[in-house]
Amino acid sequence: MSKRYNVLGMILVAVLALAACVAAPPPAEAPTADEPMEEAPADMSGKVVIPAGGTIRIGGSFALTGPIPDPGKDIQYGAEIAIDDLNAMGGFEGFMFELVGEDGACDGTQGTNVGNKFAADDSIVAVSGGTCSGETFGLMPILQEARIPFVSPSATNPDITSADCDVCNRVALSDALQGATDANFVLNELGLSKFAVVHDNSDYGKGLAEIFQNHLMAVGGEVSSFEGVQVGDTDFRAMLAKVGADGPEGIFFAGYSTEAGLIAQQMTETPGLEGSVFMSVDGAYTQQYLDAAGPAAEGTYVSFLAGSDSEEMNAEFDAKYMDKYGVAAGDLGPFHGQSYDSVKLIAAAIMEVAEVGDDGSLVIDREALISAIRSVGPIEGLTGSIKCDAMGECGAGGVQIFLVGDGEFSQVSGFGME
Amino acid sequence: MAGRSTSAQPLQLDWATVQKYAIRAFGFTILAIVLWRVITVGLAEGYPASFWISQALNGLVLGGVYALVALGYTLVYGILFMINFAHGEVMMIGGIAGFFALQFAQARGWMEGPWLVVVIALLSIMLIGMAASVLIGVTLERLAYRPLRQAPRLVPLISAIGASLFLQYSVLLIFGVSPHSYRKPELISGGLRLGDVFIPYTGAIIFFTSILLMLALYFIIQRTKLGRAMRAVAEDRATASLMGVDVNAVIVLTFMLGSALAGAAGVMLGFHNTVVKFNSGFIPGLKAFTAAVLGGIGNIPGAMFGALLLGLIEALGPSALGIPTEYKDVIAFTLLVLILIFRPSGLFGEVLSEKKA
Amino acid sequence: MPKSIKTGLIAFAFLSYLILVGLPGRTGGNALPLLAFAAALFFWYRLRRESRTQSRLVPQSGAAGQAKPGWEIGHGPQAQVQTGAVTRGGFPLRVLTQGAAAGATAGLLIAIVSAVFAEILGNGVAIQPVFDKIVPVNVAALLGVSPGAVAEAQVPPLRYLISALYFTGGGILAALAVLAGMTDAARAAGPTQWRSRLSGPAFTSAGRWLVIALPFALLAVVIWLGLPGVSLFGNDRSTVRLLFTLIATGSGLFALRAATPGRERLAVSVLIGLGVLCMPFVLDQFQNSVMGIVFIFVMMGLGLNIVVGYAGLLDLGYVAFFAIGAYTYAFVSAPFSSPYISGLLTGLGVPADSPLLGYWMALPLAMITAAFGGILLGIPVLRLRGDYLAIVTLGFGEIIRLFMLNLGELTNGPRGILEIAQPDLFGLAPEAVSGGLLSSQGWIFLLALVSSAAIAFVAIRLNDSRLGRAWIAMQEDEDVAQATGVHLVRTKLLAFAIGATFAGLAGQLYAARQINIFPENFSLFVSIDALALIIVGGIGSPAGIVLGALALKGLPEVLRGVDEYRIVAFAALLVIMMIVRPAGILPSARRRFEAAAEEAGAGEIAPEADETFVKKQENDKGTGADGEKGAMP
Predict the structure, then answer these.
(1) Confidence (pLDDT) at C370
(2) Looking at the predicted structure, is the pLDDT value of residue C509 above 60?
(3) Predicted local confidence at residue C595, as pLDDT
(4) C429 touches chain A (CB under 8 A)
(5) What is the pLDDT of residues A121-177, one digit of tens each?
(6) Is the domain of A198 the same as that of A183?
(7) Cβ separation B174–C131 shorter than 8 A
(8) Host domain of residue B338
(9) Which residue of A28, B27, C252, C552 pairs with C215 in a disulfide if CB–CB is 3.0 to 4.6 A?
(10) Which comes out higher in pLDDT, residue C196 or A250?
(11) Are residues A344 and A268 in the same domain?
(12) What is the mean pLDDT of residues C433-439?
């Protein structure tokens, strides 16, 4: 007898649950369904409403784990300092900014998860990130669908911005520019024409290496070999010996600092490469590169994408960075400035479109924000004055080329020196 | 191997015979293709002899490092039949400890002193690295593996994978994200230049130290009481225990030996490649495991030989076959598959123990 | 009493770890109570275990000298030998002193360490170059003072004493908790008892119905949390709701197991099926996307289970087939991302940016390609066994990934294949068909659910078929299986091919979910994840695999809030999980039986080291006694 009641009871619970399931309003129909009562009037779809006393939440996708946690951390720090600065200036109309950092792990799957997390959270206004291009490709379609604009500080793959994507922006300069400038530099200023091109098999490194290769050949140089290494490898001697057998005048490496430093160091030991020039790219413009290469770093070239003339601002930022995290800016990675600027850009756009409602809440129209990011500015950032074009390329300045001497980078060519 | 049965009935075409001949034919075809490729590439590229010698030396150094790590895999496998997936991380810890020891020594100026001081300091750094690795290896055994000794064999494997991740990311959290860069003392930087061949001192040290350590290990296994106990435990744990062997102690000692070798490899690799970071044990660990299997897992000379072969193939393969170096791992793994097709228990078979799996 | 000091030392090591990874700074100021509580939990565990062993061991202390490698945590040889000597008198007082001594040891050492740190930092020397997380903020949190006080060397000495006292208090608290919990009944029950409680279906009637009703109640909570107007948990609501979703799905599996076989189980499974099917409609985008990846991994897990769990072939390169499925679909769905195919198609006059095949038309293609890959791998490894197979499959997975990475002409290299089409529903977008009820991520989740169900059905039927018996026979002993007429080549190849097919299906859905795929998505870690989830869940058991996927792929997403500690926490859980429940959370019926047999025979020595995954055949059921296994050749 009791068993029958049990069955009945169970069916009752189940039916209730299913009924609730069907009755529950689906998220797609009413995107604001997830918002708390006091901030969700029916006509507020397509708008972010922040109740009085709330914070303006900006998402961040940073590569905190995965293959390159150090530059990811650096980017997170840059964004955090930007938020601190914004709040120190009083936020906006009494609303403070908040950074919702997530681990994008430099990986497409994680990027998709992070994107979905932001898309599901109605209080996320915009996103700063992702760190890697693959991760950003994971974020892209989801944020596009959710109408959340993002500004990537460091994804340099040329395909990140396109005419189809109105939420896609970046402060980093596209690799196309850097690869071409580097090729011109080695040919015209160093007078070297026979180069070996090495990349780290990431979409960033390989893309940049191919751009360099194509451009060098187009302007009359010669590429003696094109080789790839793995991120995380530490012994490149076999690869270098193979490269050295063709007797190139220099090696161009597209990738991150640790690998760059080790290649620079190990090539000094490789027969055929003792006198060759080493050149690397923005991923290697760090203290880590200098540490990893040691004395071998002297006389190598590194290009970087920047254009700041506000030394004062940078010095102030570096002091805050050191103060807050105990590491010098530049020790972990090169992109903290871009990260800072991307958050500043987002904040500027928000300030442009946000309106304080009658009930004291802040209303941000998503579509207006998307276009505001491209129209706002130019704003003064760490990397120069930031202003987006119609494709979402917001980076300031141009390519600078540095020579390492006495354990320090000193600019020898490029932006700001013409 | 199975040649005896076929010679008795040469005409019988059962499935096994067909399979065997098919495999042999396949093997010879592959061998012929590879040889043809190597010869054509060699003629086309026309590398000088010094190039091949340099590459072979690079391979031997790489192989020496793999060998020291592979021995740890092989020892543990020979006795516990488990893959200690975290062994690469044990090596990395040795490298990290060595880095801090080196910093300490440099801060005191020992690295600029007379050569005897430098040598003693370097040896102490290596010992410190080994001690750190031993500590981690033994802790690992105690916490993650010992409770699982009777469990189905996949369970310790997953536990080891968990331990590997745990060690990597703990190092990341505790010592920070920046890689640790070794500064070579003057004494061991640079190298020997013989014509067009350059031998870095660190490379030579790695190669000879690993040979030395391997010989010492072989001596321990074959000639000492501990070695006999280890072999007994590998053979049959229950019987060994009945014969008065303290199985737990032998297993702990095995872990200590393997970890010490890995720690030495970690420190030497730190000096050779100058950078240690949280994930720098993973790839060498994987390669060393491959090498151990290549030579016949559980077999000590097999692990040494497999490791040196793997190192040579990685260094020489891409140049000899005329393909980009990105494919060096493809070459290494393909070689592994091919060797295991023809010799299913590795090049040297399993000697340390005899078992079913 | 050296034993409690040892406990204190271990606790100190554990606490030092927490301090070194920078946890104190994360607690928002005063970390002491939290750390003391963590220590107390540890003391409680040690003291309880010890007092249980004592009360269990004292009557039979004669047997304590029998040193046996401990299979269960809790009675390893030392524990038995050492506690056997302890006398009975003054039990509560002894526990109290032990707790206090352990706590004082740990507390004193922590105080010393924090004093050393504070002293160094106070002198303006940075510890960060060595220990990244030892900055004034962290040390201050540890001492309960302001960061400024540490940096300026103005920590009142009393603080160190207080910090030591906190841990001593933790120890005493733990001892009190142990004493409170030490009823006679609990004392009588050995530590093994709870294991069988968890694994055995020994529910009381009311408890059983509670277990069955639980998933529905949790589902109701999930739905309620998604209703407009519910503002619980603030900004974390999405995450909390995901947690509830995961638990609800997981508890559904326990409910299934609790239901008695027959009509009741059928009814429960239909209801649970309905409940799960309604999830994609009510969850938000984040939850749907996480559940989507969870069930894609369930599909993979079920496939891998055929290879590893049924046929006993350890495959560490399973990601290869997943990648093959994903890339096959990518090639036909977004052919113009691949330079080579793009050139080919342009030559044929195909207009740019048009997909070759839709999701459904590509389905058989992905399956066939993956199955072909499975056979391709299977043939060369036919003769390999055990760990040789493991490393070769691992190599195969890496080879496939490296080809994806380096064959740039075909796969677009590291820049990946972009803009892969989502699956349609009768030629329409799912949102349109369902009238906006189903988001794109919800649709992927729904597809993953349905596909997992289909794969689970096929897998279960296969396991019960002639082929399934052949697999198990092969797993037990290849030579004997061959002697009894099992065609080894065919059986092995079928296992590889079927497993690969399922992975191919999962890969195709994954490509559709990701929209853009890159070679880095198919690293060794995918194989490891898939293997870990079937082992954590319970090898050979489809329900366990679902649970494993929920735990391994779902929980890390819930833990997103603790970002950098995510992987360490996950890894530690993996190890602990293996030690506490080596057979998995929801072991299959066979393994449950075997575990029971193991426990029954635990008195004897069972020294088999190289046991294969399943130790006994079904028909051994009658004989049971496991202790004899050691004697078997």
Answers:
(1) 94
(2) yes
(3) 65
(4) no
(5) 888 999 998 888 888 988 988 899 889 999 999 888 888 888 888 899 988 887 888
(6) yes
(7) yes
(8) 70-342
(9) C252
(10) A250
(11) no
(12) 73
User: How do beta strands A379-381 and A55-62 pair?
Assistant: unpaired
Q: A212 with A235, same domain?
A: yes
Same domain (yes/no): A193, A295 = yes
Write down the pLDDT at residue A300.
92
Residue B281 lies in a domain: yes
- Domain contains A156: yes
> How many angstroms separate the CA of residue C50 from the nearest CA in chain B?
17
Is A394 a domain residue? Answer: no
A212 and A226, same structural domain? yes
Residue A169 confidence (pLDDT): 92
Please answer whether residues C628 and C616 qualify as being in contact, where contact means their C-beta atoms are separated by less than 8 angstroms. Answer: no
pLDDT single digits (tens) B26-45: 888 888 888 888 888 877 77
**Number of domains chain B is built from:** 1
Q: Looking at the structure, do residues A70 and A201 belong to the same domain, yes or no? A: no
The pLDDT score that the predictor gives to residue A113 is 84
pLDDT of residue B126: 92
Report the CATH number that the domain containing residue B119 is assigned in CATH.
1.10.3470
Residue A340 has what pLDDT? 92
How far apart (Å, rounded) are the C-alpha atoms in residues A92 and A181?
A: 40
| b/e per residue B29-52 (b: at least 16 CB within 10 A) | eeeeebeeebeebeeeeebeebbb
Q: What's this model's pTM, rounded to 2 decimal places?
A: 0.83
- Which one, of A169, A157, A284, A270, lies nearest residue A211 by Cα? A157
| CB pair distance less than 8 Å for C557 and A113 | yes
Find the mean pLDDT for residues C13-25. Answer: 84
Task: Give the Cα separation of A370 and A377 in Å (integer).
Answer: 14
| Domain span holding position A64 | 47-172+335-387
CA dist A373 and A345 (Å) reads 7
State how far the Cα of C549 lies from the Cα of C530, in Å rounded to an integer: 8
On whether residue B205 sits in a domain, the answer given is yes
**Shortest distance, CA A265 to any CA of chain B (angstroms):** 9
Chains that touch B (3 or more CB pairs under 8 A): A, C
Q: Which residues contact B55 (CB under 8 A, 6 or more apart)?
A: A238, A241, A242, B315, B316, B319
B29: in domain: no
Domain-located, residue A63: yes
Please tell me if residue C437 touches chain A, with a CB cutoff of 8 Å: yes
Q: Is residue B64 part of a domain?
A: no
pLDDT band at A25 (very low <50, low <70, confident <90, very high): very low
Residue A30 domain-assigned (yes or no)? no
The reply to whether C251 touches chain A by the CB within 8 Å rule is no
Nearest CB to A70; choose among B54, B59, B177: B177
What domain count does chain A have?
Answer: 2
